[in-house]
Design a protein that fits this description.
The complex is a heterodimer. By secondary structure, chain A is mostly beta strands. Chain A has no helices and eleven strands. Classes of the chains: A mainly beta, B mainly beta.
Chain lengths: 117, 117
Amino acid sequence: NAGVTQTPKFQVLKTGQSMTLQCAQDMNHEYMSWYRQDPGMGLRLIHYSVGAGITDQGEVPNGYNVSRSTTEDFPLRLLSAAPSQTSVYFCASSNPRDPSGLQETQYFGPGTRLLVL
Amino acid sequence: GDSVTQMEGPVTLSEEAFLTINCTYTATGYPSLFWYVQYPGEGLQLLLKATKADDKGSNKGFEATYRKETTSFHLEKGSVQVSDSAVYFCASKPFNAGGTSYGKLTFGQGTILTVHP
C-alpha cells in the first residue's frame, strides 16, 4: 500500500489564483480530512468526509472547497488564493470500523507546502 | 469546544536525559487521546494513544497515561536519543456514542524537541 499520497509537494501561487491540492489513499478508508499547519497553532481541521458523497466543514473552512466522488480521493480546492492561506496542508484518512483496534488511528500524508504571494 | 494545551517549547535535552511534555485537554465527556510525532520533512505519525481513563499508551519507549481527574495526558520517556528529535503533538478526539470512530482531531500547538549528543 502507498498509504496517503499528496500532490504537489510544494506550490507557489499569486493572490487570486486557484488550485487543487490532491489527496489519495489506497486503504479503502471511509474517513478523510484536510488540516492546515501553521507555526504555534498546531493543526486545524479544514474539511472532512465520512464517505463518498458526504463532506462537512471543520474549524477553518472559509476559502476552501472539497468534494468526495470516490472513496480514494479527497481534493481540496482553493478558489481564490490569499496570503493568509500560506501554510502546510496535510490530508489524513482512517477506517472507523477497523476490527484490528486501529479504528482510532489517522494516517497522514507527507504534506503540501503552499506559498501565496 | 474541545481544546488541547501543550507545554511551551522548544525543549532541548542531552542524549539519555528524561523527557516530559505536558498536555492537558478540555472536552465534553471522555475523549480519546493521542500523541503524534512529526519528523523533519514528514507527515504526522501516531506515536501512542489511550481511549479511556487510566489507560497507558506506550510505544518506542514513550509513555502517557490518561488522567481524567487532572484532564492530562503527559508524554514521558526515560532516556531520549538524538533520533527522537521531532515535533510532538498532543490531540483529542471526541467519543462517539454510536460506537464508530468518526470524529475530528483537535491538536495542541506542538512541542519541538531537540536532543543533542
